[in-house]
Amino acid sequence: MVRDLSLSRIRQGLRDKEFSSREITQAYLDRIEQLDPKLNSFTQAFRDSALAAADAADRRLAAGDARPLEGVPIAHKDILATTEGRTTCASRMLEHYRSPFDATVVARMAEAGAVVVGKTNMDELAMGSSNETSYFGPVTNPWGDNAVPGGSSGGSAAAVAARLASGATGTDTGGSIRQPAALCGITGLKPTYGRCSRYGLVAFASSLDQPGPMAQSAEDCAHMLGAMAGHDERDSTSVDRPVDDYVSGLEADLAGKVIGVPAEFFTEGLAPDVEKAVKAALDQYRELGAEIREIHLPHYPFAIPTYQVISAAEASSNLARFDGVRYTHRTADPENLIDMYESTRAEGFGAEVQRRVMVGTFVLSAGYFDAYYLKAQKVRTRIRDDFAQAFEEVDLIAGPTSPTAAFDIGEKSADPIAMYLSDLYTTAANLAGVPGISFPCGFADNGRPVGMHLMADFFREDLLLGAAHRYQQATDWHTRIPESV
Amino acid sequence: MEFEPVIGLEVHAQLATASKLFCGCSTQYGAEANTQTCPVCLGMPGTLPVLNREAVRMAVMMGLAVEAEVRPRSVFARKNYFYPDLPKGYQTSQYELPIIEHGRLRTEPEDGEPKTVGITRIHMEEDAGKSLHEGFGEGITAIDLNRTGTPLIEIVSEPDMRSPAEAVAYLKKLHSIVRYLEICDGNMQEGSFRCDANVSIRPKGTEELGTRAELKNLNSFRNVERAITYEMARQQEVLEDGGHVVQETRLWDADQGLTRSMRSKEEANDYRYFPCPDLLPLDVPQTLVDEARGSLPELPDAKRERFMAEYGLKDYDASVLTTSRELADYYERVTGTGADPKLAANWTMVELLGALNKDGTDITASPVSAENLGLLVQRIEDETISGKIAKQVFEPMYAEGVDPDTVIEREGLQQITDTSAIEATVDEVIGENEGQVQQYLDGKDKVLGFFVGQVMKKTGGKANPQQVNQIVKEKLDAKKS
Description:
Strand content of chain A: 5-15%
Mean pLDDT of chain B: 91
Low-confidence stretches of chain A: none
Number of helices of chain B: 15
Radius of gyration of chain B: 30 Å
Low-confidence stretches of chain B: none
Largest interface: A-B, 43 and 28 residues
Largest sheet of chain A: 11 strands, mixed
CATH architecture of one domain in chain A: Alpha-Beta Complex
Distance between the termini of chain A: 13 Å
Oligomer: heterodimer
Number of strands of chain A: 11
Structural class of chain B: alpha+beta
């Protein structure tokens, strides 16, 4: 029954007593049981607690006391701390870790009445673009037998695409919400840095990480973001600013809006079928009344190396706490303290995590700091300045989310550089702190989805959601369901 | 060849905030292990720091007290290293942009002239936990994270000191100031006031700095002095043997009275400092600086000057009495009773501090209240007792905490000022010592003292000495004619 329902539709149906939260929740749990052994999009399902929460939601719905997401079944990326179940980050290091507290976005969604059906698989500690680095094995994209779902929020994207949850949280450090959303044919929003609290998000790169919603449509994401966003005193980098009413903002008119298309986006490396779909989407926007204008983001080509240096540097420090002393994996019978550290981390972290910790340690080391970390910070400022300048003349910046549609499992996993280029278009938004959204705009030649990427100025999530919603009212790409599910 | 040391100190003072630097846990010392912790100070995955504003205010107060500049914007940085009692794998500190820079401090070394020592910087940081290597079985180390995240300021001096005594004087002055400001309890045993010393030596008269050693584990003023003295001699011996001093960290062993190498420069950590992305740059608005300035108490130097001007005290006495705010307050309560300021200073410094030192305690634990000490001084002034008898009165006051009048009455120590009573005793003494009387009549004036002494002995010291002197002289002179 839930296969053809969106989060927004479920939300309304619950309020209209068309069905109960228990029925909906049970349906999702059944689908997880049936389909997830193949997809591997969940690290754990919360059958008992989900049904208990659904029953509580049904009582509120019956009493006419429904909160914004009352009874709506969603999933959380397994990098967000939850007191329910484990918080593994898909790492052997945290395989058995239970958090003593809920992440702020988890708590906020619970307070909004959402029901959590489980936690989703991901690249280990959010490091990866294909969901192949998970300690619990790769996630399969429902759009292709052997296709990657993208990463690092690949489990969330695949789960939403396969209708195993009406929506899911993701986290985005360099594209980890938007790129898997694109590859799985769903809608995903990375909010402005500081819009959603990072408290309880197990840090990868603190100055870039941001939680956000992933669902079928912009409207679904608007409902989720309204519950997730807001100032949090426990996160000093969260911004104290009122949260917009994203749902009522969806109907905003596109007439007169200017969409900038950076010339730098349509160059070597972009697959022709992706380019074709994105250009068709731009034509659609013209029809909707927007003006399309070519712009320049001259420092965009430096975004990937800049991102790699800064994110690795911060990660090397953030991951130091996983040392075998307290709650993590600990090697058996270490010879001494150094051996305990080294063996624990060698066993607990996969190859990609180890690679980034080493790169990060290197770029912060005496003698290299200026050439790498400091330089990267300077380039980051330039990239931010490029955006500031661009948003003086345009309302939105558009382009492809990822240079290709979903590739095959194993296709790029041996070549880290090729893998990193999958985030070619997304990392700049994290470096600048501006919000970005990806939504489906067609299919590649191999039948896998293509994502359109829009970025806006700080705190203009309303504009992104509105623009995506207008597009989705005029098209039906976001309603397509993979045959496999 | 004669050498001189070049000494700089790094002092860690634990700020007396109720809660930790980045979370709400208590900073109380001595609680059961790991009970004063929360997910934030334990570094649990996903937690984030939130800065304690009271700690910032205290750091600003310290900066103002040493005439330093308060940076309008400073930055917290991560100091990365692995250690089991460091739960996050990094210490949140300040590195390139500390909150306080360019201060100075006037010190009064015991063996020399007052000296101003430069303060390079003061930065804020969090403390680590404690590793307990004993009591848990062979090869087992236990971790107590109660202290983790406690706010510290690190006060870094210029290498301005040239003797162990100068280093101690500087440290004592800093210690006095943090306690005046009530931003640190100054307890060196519990580690809330800790000192590392950078020591090098060079031939006297030369400018070039020698290679320094960093001395750790100096947990008392005396150990600072001993360790530096030892280290100077050690380095001198190395140089005189034709060797060269190695840059390294050395641990002071107070039991053996020596320093030993902990790690060399080559083994030193590369801390990979970088700005902490979880904390915004720290902005200190001018209003906060003004507010802190307005709330600064009278500091030791100002108080010393005032004591000299207001009470006519000598520099040394004023310095001693202003060492701590509690002592200065005590002294002012003594003078507040109307007691003579100079006598009050003497009694506070010599008798009271002497007794307290002997008991290994301080003014806050004085069994003699300031009011009672003031009363005692007044009894000397109004000639109820002599200064000498007053010492006899002081002893039970100190031992029992009673007031001086009770002691004087109970032990009958009131001074005899009744002239006829004194005259009778003088007559007695003259009658009993004819030989000495003859000596006096023969011109030996010195023998006068003998008669006074005898009279004082007969009255148990209670006769007014001036009166006795006068009467003895009168009566003996009368015999001359």
